[in-house]
Amino acid sequence: MNLMQDTLMRRVSKILFKLLAYPSPAIQVPAQGAALSNVTVVNPGQARLARQTLIVEGDQITHISPSTSQGDGYGGYADGYANSYILPGLIDMHVHIPPSSRELINIMFLAHGVTSIRETGDADGTTFEGRRRIQAGLVPGPRVFASGAVLDGNPPFLPTSWVVRNASEAQAAVAALAAQGADLIKVHHKLSAEALAGIRQAAAAKGLPLAGHIPTAVSFEAAGIGDVQHLDGLVPYPQPPETPLDYQIKWRDLTPAQIDAYVKISVEQGLAHTPTLVSGFALTQMSDPAWTDAPAVKLLPRHYRDAVWSKESMPLFSRFSDEVLAIMKQAAARNLEVTYHLHQARVRLHLGTDTAGMPFVVPGASLHKELELMVEAGLSLQDAWQAGTHAAGESLGVAQLGSVQQGAPADLLIFAQDPTLNLAALSTLKGVIAQGRLYTTEFLDQALARHRQCFERPLYDRLTTAFFRLMLKLMTSTTPKN
Known about the structure:
Blueprint: H1 8-20, E1 34-42, E2 48-57, E3 60-66, E4 85-88, E5 90-95, H2 102-111, E6 114-119, H3 127-135, E7 143-146, E8 151-152, E9 162-163, H4 167-180, E10 185-187, H5 193-206, E11 210-212, H6 220-223, E12 227-229, H7 244-252, H8 256-269, E13 272-274, H9 277-284, H10 302-308, H11 315-318, H12 322-344, E14 348-349, H13 365-377, H14 381-387, H15 390-396, E15 412-415, E16 429-434, E17 437-440, H16 441-455, H17 458-478
Parallel strand pairs: 1-4, 5-6, 6-7, 8-9, 10-11, 11-12, 12-13, 13-14
Antiparallel strand pairs: 1-2, 2-3, 4-15, 15-16, 16-17
Helix pairs in contact: 2-16, 4-5, 7-12, 9-12, 10-17, 12-13, 13-14
């Protein structure tokens, strides 16, 4: 066995996540195919066609044409969708799914109109099997693009990453991920310059794009990472004895010259950016107790809000003092500013969230907030929608993904009102078509309720919450304070 496929920490993680998982309820997945009549087809920032008939067969839109009073020669129209608005499904380009909650989180994505996700690093290698189960129609879920393990230096930032120290190990790591079915290669910030160069060369040979963080060993200009996450490379990661406060002050105090240089390099190299504005925003809200009572948060087991995402118990987040959080709010405003300048320079932007790795970044719901933050940054609502649909589909390399066109993948949203005119209309979602399968909102609500019945069982609820509190307390006691 290639050791790159079976590190000790990933084996331990696989066992741990199995122990922490609850038995998921069996949920019958709808068959592929749908017919909608008298609907308005909306491609954000492009065409809008009223009174259309749209036919889905298999995993593809096979017919779009004007509806007629005599009918269109198609039978079996889905009831209750006349006069609705049909939009392309949303695409979250930065996701991490805890394996113990994978099937629940897949449904949460659909329930919020997210029909495609890019999983940018998993903890135990279960991403590819999870993708296969969705594709086979065994469980509901979005279209999944996956990197598998994160590649990082020694010691890695995340203990479940694969360590790559040189060009030879880079070749082996990329080959192993490609063999597993990776759609991209995810890199992190502790890679050496030699390792990153080796990964870049090996990935290019396999036709796999790079996404991730800018290693501290190289400059932003020299990194050559095609899809930059979190606006990385603008402010270097803190190095001892720097603290999280030092890092946030650097963000707050960015100069126009620094931003201009960053944008210039992005334009010259044709880079894309996935800013994940919502992850930084959520961190600034950690001291607000209202977050734990948000309806979307309660779609997840209690151990998320009361342990994993608790400022008091999580080692990294516990280091964010009130002083740090106050400066983080100022730094978050600079994130918006940088995003606006990238957009003005016509750099491709994606919507991404970093769900569910960051506190209170809830699968699905957080992408709605990312849309809102993109608009707050200065994008038009149409441009923000394009970033979360058509632009992401092009970057993922699937023809017409993120659009409502004949021949396009059948990933669609059905709304009573048009959310490309007002984001408040996101609440009027009536149905989701993912990989050609029509899920009504009633179906998705019932599926979430069945999962909730499972994870709210007293024994599971108490044991998992107590376990995470204990583990995080032990981690906190051994983590040095800055």
